Structure formats: C-alpha cells, structure tokens
Automatic annotation (TrEMBL):
Superkingdom of source: Eukaryota
GO CC, alphabetical: cytoplasm; dendritic spine; plasma membrane
Lineage, uppermost ranks: Eukaryota, Metazoa, Spiralia, Lophotrochozoa, Annelida
Signal sequence bounds: none
Name recorded for this polypeptide: Uncharacterized protein
Residue ranges occupied by any PDZ domain in the UniProt entry: 205-290, 296-372
Biological process (GO), any one: chemical synaptic transmission
SUPFAM superfamilies noted in UniProt: PDZ domain-like, PH domain-like
Residues of the PID domain: 23-170
Keywords in alphabetical order: Phosphoprotein, Repeat, Transport
Length: 386
C-alpha cells in the first residue's frame, strides 16, 4: 500500500460544469461499499459500531487477498468525490451535508453517507419510526486518520462560511471552540506501560525448565487494541505447571517472545501455537515485560461536549476511536472497566456506567483489565492451559 498523497486541486462540479470547486486530493485504495439501515438518530457509539460492521462485511479475512482499486479522494467544503486516478471518471459524488459519519479504524477509513429516509408505522399503536439508508464506503490508506481529520475540518469551514453568509461573524471563535484537535494536543499518552516498554531494562528473560512433552501450563489472552505493544498477556497459570513453578512470572506479564520468536503483532492463535510447540522442549526461554493485570487509565476531557471516543457494552470496551483522547489515555478494546473515579463498577448496570461516563469531565480516572483475565479471576470461565 502506498503512502497517502495529498494536494490542492480545482475540479468542475459534475452537477454544474460552469462551477469550479477547490479541494484537497488524497490517494487511497477503495475496498468496497455496503448499505446499512439506520433507525432514528443513532449515537456516536452506534455509528462507530455501524462503521465496524461495514468493515466486517467488506474487508477480506486475514490471509485472503483483498480486492482494491486505487482512487483519488476529493474533499472540499461542498462535497466528497471519489475519482479514478487520472481524474477523468467520477465514481462517487456525495454532498458534504449528506455525510453522517467518518471513522478511521487503523489504516481503514469509513465514510457513511445518507441516501434518503422513509417513515413506517411500527406495532399496533401505529408509532412512526424513521429509517435511513446509509451507504458505507471503505478505503485503505496509511494516513486514514489525516483524511478523516481533513473531512472534519471541511465540516468546520463549511459551517463558518454558513455563519458568515448569514451575517454571524463568529467564525474564528466558534471554530476554536469545536476544535477537537486542541483537546488531543493537551492529552498526554498516559500509563506506566509507556515507561515499561521504552526502557530496555524493564524487559527480562525467564528460563523455564521442564520435562519434554510437558505443557507450560499457561493461559494467554490478547493485550487489546490500544496497548503500546500488541502482544499476548499471561492470564492464568496452572499451579503445578512449569510457568508457576519457576516463580518468575506473574499474571499480567506481557510475553514479547518465546525461544527467540517474537510474538508482537501476531494473532492470538499463532502465539498459542508457538507456546504449544514448546512442550517438546526441556528448556523454554521467554522475554517478558512485567505489567500489572489492572491498567490505569487517565482521560483528560475539558468539557462533556468532547466525545470520549469509545463505546461500552455491559462494562466491556467494545470499540475505540483511533487517535482520540480515550486511546491516548490508555483505553483498550476488549478490557473490562473495574473502576471509574475510584468507584467500583463491577456490579453496576450498563446504563449507569454509560451515564457516569457521559457526565464525566475534567480528569477521568479508570481501572480496566482484559475481559478474559477478569472472567478467569472471578471464576466465570474455566481455564484451558496450554
């Protein structure tokens, strides 16, 4: 995949050839489009889930080839267009006002555009519900976040121009007030993990001695999207197994490599296969970074008008806005929220957790841990040792 290419261009409006539109052009790979039905006014969390559903429909599974077309993405304060690379053919054309959501998920960009609404009667009372057809386009780019920010900036500039056209001269001040980037710039990357992974002295080598054919006796889980290093976490140990017997490993330790093979960035199943293969050895060498199983999170949110950038379902973080204040504060997908501002939320209903987060501003302190570890420690699941 090529790096993003962006530059200013002037194009003719396809709806009116006499009108020229100025905008920014980005190079990206177009993966495909899908249509979703949305009811009512979905929350930002619901829209993020819809974006992830679109990615799930279009993105090819790991290991399979991904069909893609190289395109130019044109962003202006009036519309967003997708053109072929020689700018001769317009593949898609959406007025900016029809764009309902933009999400960057890793190197993927999802643009969601409304395609019309219908009103239907529901139930015996004849209650009316609005359904909106949403067209979701999925693109791939090394700078998906930059493109998403540019589209967001286009909305801000368009709004300021609207205010000026109607005699409201507050454009600069209002733009300053809604600038989410200012909040991002104030948010520090938080967590002891940053120090642990940046300091080579924190990484240590653990050598396990055991009988050939004896499994290590461990349970591992993913560290979670948003962690400093994507690797696996030691979630449980068989009390009589080699891992527990060595007295050098703890629950929460992140395993960087096994017998010189790096586990960083590998799928959980691949990491498990490497650990299972080590049962045939009498000596196993691990490189680990000691991390507590409970992660300290600090989110700096000046005002509730700024989105937190993550969604929660039954206390579990299920989606995360890449590059947002939550990710910078240490929030990770797949983690269970244990505390919010010193108050336990382990047995708290979902609605109360959501309301607490929605009303929280200033410094928001949370404690989280991988859901699998939480369920193992609380006896909700039976450990399967490898």
């Amino acid at each position: 995949m090529q790096n993003v290419v962006s530059f200013y261009v002037t194009l003719r409006d396809p709806c009116n050839e006499s009108v020229l539109i100025e905008g920014v052009l980005f190079r990206a790979n177009y993966l495909g489009s899908t249509q979703l039905i949305s009811e009512g006014q979905p929350s930002k969390a619901m829209r993020m889930m819809q974006a992830q559903e679109a990615v799930g429909r279009i993105k090819a599974p790991l290991g399979e080839s991904q069909p893609a077309t190289e395109v130019d993405l044109f962003v202006s304060i009036e519309k967003i267009m997708v053109l072929n690379t020689n700018l001769q053919e317009i593949m898609m054309d959406h007025a900016l006002r029809t764009i309902s959501y933009i999400a960057d998920i890793g190197d993927l960009l999802v643009i969601m555009a409304r395609r019309g609404s219908t009103i239907r009667n529901v139930g015996p009372t004849g209650q009316k519900k609005t359904q909106t057809k949403i067209c979701c386009h999925v693109f791939e780019s090394d700078e998906a976040q930059l493109i998403a920010q540019s589209i967001g900036q286009a909305f801000q500039v368009s709004y300021v121009e609207f205010l000026k056209a109607n005699g409201i001269d507050e454009g600069t001040n209002m733009m300053k007030n809604v600038d989410y980037q200012d909040v991002l710039n104030q948010q520090e990357v938080y967590g002891e993990e940053l120090y642990m992974f940046s300091n080579k002295d924190m990484q240590r080598e653990v050598i396990l001695t055991k009988s050939k054919g004896e499994p290590l006796g461990v349970v591992i889980v993913e560290s979670g999207w948003g962690s400093m290093v994507p690797t696996v976490v030691l979630a449980n140990m068989l009390p009589t197994g080699p891992a527990a017997r060595c007295n050098s490993l703890n629950i929460g330790d992140q395993i960087i490599s096994i017998n010189g093979i790096s586990l960083v960035g590998l799928p959980l199943s691949t990491c498990q296969s490497y650990i299972k293969a080590a049962k045939h050895r009498s000596t196993v060498k691990l490189a680990v970074v000691s991390c507590p199983p409970v992660v300290e999170v600090l989110i700096k949110r000046p005002d509730i008008k700024y989105q937190l950038g993550f969604s929660v379902q039954d206390g579990v973080i299920c989606s995360l806005l890449r590059g947002g204040i939550a990710e910078r504060g240490g929030v990770r997908v797949g983690h269970r929220i244990i505390e919010i501002n010193g108050q336990s939320v382990v047995a708290v209903p979902h609605e109360k957790i959501v309301n607490t987060l929605a009303r929280s501003a200033g410094e928001i302190h949370m404690k989280t841990m991988p859901t699998s570890i939480f369920r193992l420690l609380t006896g909700q699941i039976i450990p399967h040792y490898i």
